[in-house]
Model the fold of this input.
Amino acid sequence: MDLELSGKVALVCAASKGIGRASALALAREGARVTICARTRADLDAAAAQIRAETGAEVLAVPADLTSPDGVRAVVAATVARFGGVDVLVNNSGGPGLGSFADLTDEDWRRAVETVTLNFVRFVREVVPYMRERRWGRIVGIQSSSVKQPVEGIDLSNGLRPGIAGLMKAIMPGLAGDGITINLVLPGRFLTSRIAPGAGRSAEADRALQEELAPIAADIPVGRLGDPAELGSLVAFLASAQAAYITGAVYQIDGGIIRSNL
Ligand code: NAP
Done:
C-alpha cells in the first residue's frame, strides 16, 4: 500500500528514543521529511543520524524542552522555517512521573499537566494553522493504555491522559472540515528505555531484555513487550492519505493487556 507520505512534513515530539524515534523512523521510511525533538542534544543527533542512514530522509533535529511554551513554539518555528509547514504532528512526550495517589504532591500534578496536557494543547494549537492553510493534516497523539484502564502505580497518567481523549473528541469536528484528522494511539507495554534502561541500542540487547522482563510479559496475552517499530507502523498508517476517514478514534496497541470491552 502506498501511504502517500512522500514529501510530507512530519513533526515528531520526544523522538530521540523509544516510541517517538520509532514513529519518526516509520514516517521517514515512507518518504516524509521529519523533525525530531528532545532535550539531550547527543541522543537527538544520534537518532537523526540513524534515521538518515536507514531511510535517506531529510531529518531536522531540534533540541527543546517540550514542557515549556517556548520549547514548543521553537520546534514548530524551526520546522516551518526548514520545510515550509507541518503536515503531520505526532504528539509524544517524555511521560509523567511514576507514583501512587497518596505520594503525589501538587507540584507533581502541575509538572504532569505541563508534560501531558499542555504539551498536547500547545502543539495542536501551534500546528493547526499550517494544516488549515493546506486543507490537509494528520494529528496522532501518543497517550497510554491508561486512557481505557487505570495502570497501577502511575496515577498521574491515570488522572490526566483520559482527559486528552475527551479534548480530542471535542475539537475533532472543528478540524474535519479542513481535512485534518486527529486520533490517539494507546501503547500498552513497549520495550523502551522508559521501561528498561538500555532498550533500543541493538537487536541482541533487546532480545536479552525481553527475557529479563518475562515476569512483566506474563500479564500480556501476546506474551512479550511491544517493539516500538510495531507502534511506528500504526502511526504511519494513521498519518497516511489512506486514513482520511479515520478521525476522533483511539487505537490501543497493547498485546491484549487492556481487558475492557471497548
Ligand atoms: P523513552 O524511551 O524514555 O523516550 C522518551 C523520549 O522523550 C526521549 O527522546 C526523551 O529525550 C524525550 N523527553 C523526555 N522528556 C522531555 C521533555 N521535557 N522535552 C522534550 N523531550 C523529552 O520513553 P517511551 O517509552 O518511548 O515513552 C514515550 C511516551 O509514551 C511517554 O509519554 C510514555 O509515558 C508513553 N508510554 C510508554 C509506554 C511504554 O511501554 N514504553 C506505555 C504507555 C505510554 P530527553 O530525555 O533527552 O529529552
Remarks:
- The chain has eight helices and seven strands.
